[in-house]
Amino acid sequence: MVSSRDVAKMAGVSQATVSRVLNNPESVKPDTRKKVLRAIDELGYQPNLIARSLVTNSTRTIALISGTLSNGFFVETTNSIVALATNRGYKTMVYFEGAMALRDIFDSIRGNQVDGILLSSIKLDDPVFEEIERSGIPYMLFNRRPRSGGNYVVFDNCMSGELITHHLLQLGHRRIAFISGETNISTFLERKIGVEKALNEAGLSLEPDLFHVCDTSSSEVEKITLKLMHMSNPPTAILCATDAMAFSCMDAVLSLGLRIPEDVSLAGIDDIRMASHHAIQLTSIGHHKFRMGEIAAENLIEMIEQGVDPDHPRQIILQPELVVRKTTGPKR
User: Which of 6, 168, 233, 314 could form a disulfide with 173 if both were Cys (CB 3.0 to 4.6 A apart)?
Assistant: First the structure.
């Protein structure tokens, strides 16, 4: 096995110089650095990353704890985060919600000595969040946030719920169903608050028989949709708290032989790429100037490289934009 001693011998330098080239290249003269790098390349030397991390106190590794890949939003954010981190010279360890308990994931992350954490799987009152803060590991939350404090990038979810509901109201809909995930998660709670605000401004309320909370799985969303459409007075519009849920809802509606939007309008939130597919054309709401995952990753890397300022948490709220497509239309 090739060692740093072999590299030093070929380059005609000391082992200490080889170490500086690997860990602090700016401290080595350009000509010397080139000789060492040439020797590393010719010998095929692979530095011991564990030993190197002990020297630099950095593993150049980020841990990403993402929501389930059954939701296209998390497919897109995972792809963009890994791509950006790789481009910046960081490896990404990816964990998915549901595969392990969040506490077990965090214990694993601490054992791997990562430089930072990106996290979307957190509840409003989550004891793991307090552990993450106490750990001193730089972190950035995205899509979800705790009840107070923290570093995060999220949509203005209240505004998202409000704007998409206003759109349905302007089309003449009054019986609007809302299918949501658990409201102990900021995303779903805030979107519900926005929906209720828009309805209240129109002199309406979120009727109990039209509001359903589920685990967001396709099977649960489909069951709720079928139940809604078999009511004696079914909704004329259905709003789903995510686009992924809206796709499942769409499938259930179409299985009944009903037309969208002629028989029932349908809208989602997040505006993932699939929403704009020509075969789907889902009316949705999202943020289109930047990708949330990229913003979260950029901020985390800045904190890793420049340090964390505990007195000034990074709290970024992206403004939503409504995109009207073919799944919403006037009440008939």
Answer: 168
